[in-house]
């Protein structure tokens, strides 16, 4: 992880922070090259920064800045953005929340479903028109990828660390790769996460059924997505054999595919 506690970076953000009194790692969400909670003259900010080099991390941070005005207050607001030759950084308002608990007996599950319904109710911003969802396409059966297209704003990065639960509110953070696609994809992503957290597939789908978009989903489209998801996680786990979480996600995706009675071959 790159260290932003260097004088050059502190000077870069100083116009927005004033004197910085404390810098500590951010807890929950904000997955990026560097994420820290900054205490400063101007208050408190979550700072998300990546090296300013062409490619995925920089592109995802720019995409997050572009979508943020349309995702607030479901997402913490971006208060400032800075960059130089070395870094690009976003300063978010600080919110008090903890990672959601996805376990079968968790009291957080209604709030998690509520977050997904709030995402599903967001209108599709014009900026997202050029961001069609394609990540599952190469893992789908021939012709099935067309079933994943749609006119909904998708979040997709659903995991316990990205859904924060506060005393009076809840947030979805890390809008690093929003896309346009079929509205039921976000609840489908939740299903796999819940299975990985200990739910059986029937229980996981019963929670997804609390999302309006899931109720409207075409069964054949969801079946095709379950196949593509299982292949995607299996490929990722094979390529990174030391990543236990990928093995768990691969196994969860296979259990979901088995529940839906679809064959994952190839």
Write the layout of secondary structure elements.
Elements: H1 7-17, E1 20-25, E2 34-40, E3 43-51, H2 56-71, E4 78-83, E5 87-93, E6 98-99, H3 109-120, E7 152-154, E8 163-165, E9 170-172, E10 179-181, H4 185-196, H5 201-208, H6 212-215, H7 219-239, H8 244-260
Antiparallel strand pairs: 1-2, 2-3, 3-5, 4-5, 6-8, 7-10, 8-9
Helix pairs in contact: 4-5, 4-8, 7-8
Descriptive tags:
38% helix, 2 domains, five-stranded antiparallel β-sheet, Kinase-like_dom_sf, alpha+beta, single chain, Phosphotransferase enzyme family protein, Aminoglycoside 3'-phosphotransferase, Chain: A, domain 2, Phosphorylase Kinase, domain 1, three-stranded antiparallel β-sheet, 266 residues
Q: What is the averaged pLDDT score?
A: 93
Distance between the termini: 36 Å
Radius of gyration, in Å, reads: 19 Å
Reported CATH architecture of the largest domain = Alpha-Beta Complex
- What percentage of amino acids are in beta strands? 15-25%
Q: Please give the count of helices.
A: 8
Secondary structure: number of strands: 10
Structural class of the secondary structure composition? alpha+beta
Question: What is the fold-level CATH name, i.e. the topology of the largest domain?
Answer: Aminoglycoside 3'-phosphotransferase, Chain: A, domain 2
Oligomer: single chain
Could you name the CATH homologous superfamily of the largest domain?
Aminoglycoside phosphotransferase (APH), C-terminal lobe
Order of SSEs, N→C? HEEEHEEEHEEEEHHHHH
What does the largest sheet look like? 5 strands, antiparallel
Q: List low-pLDDT spans.
A: none
Q: Give the count of structural domains.
A: 2
- What strand order characterises the main sheet? 1-2-3-5-4
Per CATH, the class of the largest domain reads: Alpha Beta
Helix content: 25-40%
Shape: globular
